[in-house]
Amino acid sequence: MTYTLGDVNRDGEINAVDASSVLAYYAMTSTNQDGGYDEDQKTAADVNHDGDINAVDASSILAYYAYTATTKEEIMSMEEYMKKLK
After folding, report:
1. Which backbone phi and psi does 14 adopt, to 5 degrees?
2. C-alpha closest to that of 40 among 29, 28, 30, 53
3. What parts of the chain have a pLDDT lower than 50?
4. pTM value?
5. Which of 13, 85, 36 is closest to 56 using CA atoms?
6. How far apart are CA 35 and CA 24, in angstroms?
């Protein structure tokens, strides 16, 4: 299976639903419970590639969604967006 960075629920969109899912995953794993993600979802969720899936990733996904919803120019990919933030 493949993944798209930020699209953790695999619906073809990167949006607030994905950010919410990442927060729920983080809450579960923070309390030593299974977050329910497979390996591709974990890779898609770790948008800043720091090895952790947490609120920072959720915030970045939400920021990207806001960017895509408001830009009038050609929309860059999540990968490009994250590189630009560094």
Report:
1. -110, 110
2. 53
3. none
4. 0.94
5. 85
6. 8
